[in-house]
Amino acid sequence: AVNAVTTSSAKREMQIIRGIAEEAIVPMLRIWHAYNQLFLDDEYVMAITDEEYVTIRRDDLQGNIDIKMSIATQESKALKADRLAFLMQTIGPNIEPEMRNLIMSRLVEINDMPKLAKDIMNFKPQVDPMAQKQMELQIALLEAQVENERAKGIENQMDVKLKGAKAANEIAKAKKTSSEADMKDLEFLMEDQGISHERDMRKEAVKQIGKMQKPGVNQPGSGNMQQPE
């Protein structure tokens, strides 16, 4: 019941503040804007934040502009802060540093601390030299392992090719040995059957016939015939 009453009171307070902003403050700001168009210097430097400044020219203020106001109460701020805190708890410790800084800066900004919110948003953690060196060594180790595995792959390919060449050589040797064995078996068979001896005798006879057919060689059974004077 207390929560319901507080919520209703916060809603009524928000409605009253929004009504004042829309019906009183915004029209007053439009009047100030019209005065600026008439009486402002040709160039005017306006502070946006403590460190950011903007140069405004009077010519840039011509025409109608849209004025909006951001309205918040302590209850609405607390509600937003609770939701952001719940969001961080839901994400857990594995949240990215950039996202964590964004949510934290928003939480601080809700509590009306803009400078701290800006510092948190722009915060960059300093890199530990030892951690950086360890990371570099790990990367170098991984690269060395990759190169080693690549070299092993090339070596395995060369081994496969070498083994293939050796296998082809062994096959050729085996074929040669088989052919020589077949030739020896054939020679033995021919010797055993007298074919080799007969072939040698034929060769010798062919040689003798060739010698006898040469000029100046007397053939068997022919004498030297002399003609009478």
Tell me the layout of helices and strands:
Layout lengths: L1 H38 L3 E5 L5 E5 L16 H18 L5 H14 L3 H8 L7 H65 L1 H18 L17
Helix pairs in contact: 2-3, 3-4
Brief descriptors of the model:
6 helices, disordered C terminus, 2 strands, rod-shaped, 70% helix, 229 residues, mainly alpha
Helix-residue proportion? over 70%
Distance between the termini: 175 Å
How does the helix and strand content classify structurally? mainly alpha
Order of helices and strands: HEEHHHHH
Number of helices: 6
Low-confidence stretches: 1-5, 219-229
* Broad shape: rod-shaped
* Strand line-up across the major sheet: 1-2
How large a portion of the residues is in β-strands, by DSSP E? under 5%
User: How many strands, which pairing sense, and closed or not: the largest β-sheet?
Assistant: 2 strands, antiparallel
Counting DSSP E segments of at least 2 residues, the number of strands comes to 2
Can you walk through the features of this model?
Helix content is 70%, strand content 4%. It is mostly helical and 229 residues long.
Short structural description:
This protein has 229 residues and is mainly alpha-helical.
